[in-house]
Amino acid sequence: MPIKAILTDIEGTTSAVSFVFDVLFPYAARHLPDFVRQHAERPDVAVQLGAVRLDSAEPAADVERVIEILLGWLAEDRKATPLKALQGMVWQQGYAAGQLKGHVYPDAVQALQHWHAQGYALYVYSSGSIQAQKLIFGCSEAGDLSPLFSGYFDTTAGPKREARSYRHISAAIGCPASQILFLSDVVEELDAARQAGMLTCGLVRGGGELSGHPNVGNFAEIDPAIL
Ligand SMILES: CSCCC(=O)C(=O)COP(=O)(O)O
Ligand SMILES: [Mg+2]
Fold first, then answer.
1. 23 in ligand 1 pocket by Cβ < 6 Å?
2. Atom 7 in ligand 1: which residue has the minimum CA distance?
């Protein structure tokens, strides 16, 4: 059956790992403590602080302890939903202030534009929050790419290495998994997507091999019509 929708990962796939690790994460580490202190009572922030207390099994943690937990999770790159939500809020301030511009590889920009023009429905699935996803594409070095996308999924759809998350996304998109192509640089994510019935393609931008899946070095090598 022909592919109708393309679902893409961000870090290492559309965008450089170094942008996430050397720009976004340090920005969050620098600004998250004061952001949390200043906005701890804001309802959307307070919900996430409550989730940190729950996830860490520290129900009595005060704001300073919650910040400590968040910075620990950030340092270990834990894909914890409350951390990701708060990072998105902090980055929003950075993008608004012109201190951040989203990195998207030129080959990804070109292919996404081409696929959109050809009628493929484009979706994003990243551990970064939906707010963070909209920012990286909406405030990218290549301009506002958000009109290209039909929807966004984050860890609230489930962990990226579990097949049930891809089944959930397929149902939410309203498209059989067999008509969705998933792009990622992580083999466990590709395996989970395939287990759910999706077609897969691995991005190996720095070389190496994503075993058991078609591999490409960049988006220009992907032709959804022949996969
Ligand atoms: C949305 S940009 C920030 C990416 C991020 O926080 C992250 O953890 C990367 O996860 P991905 O699933 O895109 O590899
Ligand atoms: Mg990735």
1. no
2. 128
Write down the ipTM of this complex.
0.96
188, 6, 197, 134: CA torsion to nearest 10 = 60
User: Are the beta carbons of 6 and 121 closer than 8 angstroms?
Assistant: yes
Q: pTM score, two decimals?
A: 0.96
C-alpha to C-alpha distances, 189 to 67, 184, 194, nearest whole angstrom: 29, 7, 9
Q: Is 139 in the pocket of ligand 1 (CB under 6 A)?
A: no
Ligand 1 pocket residue status of 94, Cβ below 6 Å: no
Pocket test for ligand 1, best of 9, 11, 95 (most atoms within 8 A of CB): 11
Domains and their CATH numbers in the chain? 5-16+103-221 (3.40.50.1000), 19-96 (1.10.720.60)
Q: Which atom of ligand 1 is nearest to the CA of 186?
A: 14
pLDDT in tens, the chain (227 residues): 799 999 999 999 999 999 999 999 999 999 999 999 999 999 999 999 999 999 999 999 999 999 999 999 999 999 999 999 999 999 999 999 999 999 999 999 999 999 999 999 999 999 999 999 999 999 999 999 999 999 999 999 999 999 999 999 999 999 999 999 999 999 999 999 999 999 999 999 988 999 999 999 999 999 998 87
Q: Is 127 in the pocket of ligand 1 (CB under 6 A)?
A: yes
Instruction: Tell the burial category of 87 from Cβ atoms under 10 Å away from its Cβ (0-12, 13-18, 19+).
Output: buried
